[in-house]
Amino acid sequence: MKRRLAVAGTLALGAALALPASALAHGLVGKQDLPIPRWLFAWAATVVLVVSFVALAALWPRPRLEHVKERRVWTAPVALEVLCGALGIAAFAVTIWAGFSGTQTATANLIPTVVYVVFWVGIPFTTLLLGNVFGAFNPWRALARGVAWLASRGGSETPAPLPYPKWLGRWPAALTILLFAWVELVYVNRDDPTQLAIMALLYAGIQLVGMTLYGIEPWTRNADGFSVYFRLFSMLSPLHWRDRTLYTRPPLSGAPTLDAGPGTVPLLCVMIGTVSFDGLSQGSLWTGTGGIAPDLQQRFINLGFSGEVALEIAFTIGLLFMVGLVSGVYRLGVLGMHSVRAGYSTTSLSRRFVHSLIPIALAYVIAHYFSLFVYQGQAMAFLVSDPLGDGSDFFGTATATINYNVIGANGVWYVQVFALVLGHACGLTLAHDRALVVYQRVRDATRSQYWMLAVMVAFTSLGLWLLSAAAQ
Amino acid sequence: MIAPPLAHLGHWYHSLLYLAPVLIVVVVLWIQERRERGREADEDE
Prior knowledge:
The complex is a heterodimer of chains A (about 475) and B (about 45). With about 475 residues, chain A is an all-alpha fold.
């Protein structure tokens, strides 16, 4: 059994890494001039993780992150909460307006940059530092709460919401993130402002219906994909917002509080897998001459599909493959843990340790989108002044430009490597801390984490391999 | 026409350098796990 497991693990990890080299190149500028070959960073990262593992085993004998005391800092006034909600609704309205009424040139319209840079990348970065700020600005939640407040003031009796189905868990959130990634990475009209506006309105409409049926908070906590996505990242933050009150806590200590119900493991795997595919899809192995995508595309063209649809099918297969690969590697880690000592089912172990994937998901986001955020994020300076791209200059910044010298290629690479290594070390720490709770003996806990160490090393090498291809 | 993987060896062989540390860690941990399992069995006896 163990031998089969080891062989299967080796093969899966091999498949994860022996795929052709590719990369991420979101706005990467200049050529890297690194003092050592890029692959050596993967070796160095492995050494760091192994040393971290040994240090945890020797110096971390009791769980320290499971039950920490939070310190209350400040309670925000109701007016501030209302203001944030109103700002969120206003920003959403302006973005939709730009999508419908503005130029259909993606780079000159506000909506693509807001959706793919500010919303998708900027909020996770902000969340890590400031806690779950999206909860305060969430436009559809603010709208629903406003309507509920008005209804209660008007004295009208609103029917009690249905209980949120337990079996459904976070599956809607996993599906949301997968669909968003599909639009971002596969859909050929991903930058079309009007289509983005329609999709945003559709999403908001679905959320309003869901909140009406199942209640605002249960729906937001489980089914609103973006709320769930940002809330997961906020669990790593040292700042915790709860009922308008701000608390401080040790970094990472929010992650063990994750209630990993149905759909949570798939959600985390989707988060990591889709970003991995983003990296893969930008490398020559995927798109270059003789790459996988052109080959797949040709096969589907031969079946009678148009070139565009065939390309989308090829990319969809790649996207799902990477999600499956990440799920498989995590599953192998869980199977390995399961072999250490009976008593917990693999499903139970999978959920108990899934919070250790949160820092990895964030590390992948930082590593893959840091340059996009740093470069394309600057475009907001002129886009807010001219959101429609019609020559307006509301704030006098319409002539601002993107400074591509703000950070060089080497700087971007070091940030990426640092984020990946730190993220995986944090994942290792969370898994070790949980193992000390799950397994009674420290020895068993450490043994169980051999497998998680292998998972972390695999994810780190995969991430660096994807990044290195982009830089070539 | 699909090119056999070896035809593009130059494009992907360096990927193995990223795979190597993973394989090394997996093999070492597997051996270590076997040793500990054996030690545990001895203690039980």
